[in-house]
Design brief:
The protein has 106 residues and is of the alpha/beta class. It is built from three helices and four strands. Strands 1-2-3-4 form a four-stranded mixed beta sheet, sandwiched between helices. It has helices at 26-41, 59-75, 86-95; strands spanning 3-7, 15-24, 46-57, 78-82.
Amino acid sequence: MQFTVHRDPGSTLTETVLRLEGELDLIASSSLGEAMGEAFQSGAQRLVLDLGGLTFIDSSGLRTVLRGREDSAEKGVAFLLRRVPSQVHRVFDITGMTTELEIEPD
């Protein structure tokens, strides 16, 4: 079960893009939380989670994504999900999270 978070080379001073790859589960959630925290500390005005490489998400992963959205709102940082795979989008639909999250259209 591999999970990686990469800061996209296309990131700018005002926008941080985090590319997620693998399974976002209990163990991997802490890595994502740390990467989002670093993005906030760097002064990002917009945080984008690129989920194109995500193959699985569990309840702890869902909570981490929601916490990122909440932290973004508190800090006045825009929060966006990009390239959400169909299996992950389905989980968002089932849990009602699509109403809580800004998801970039394909």
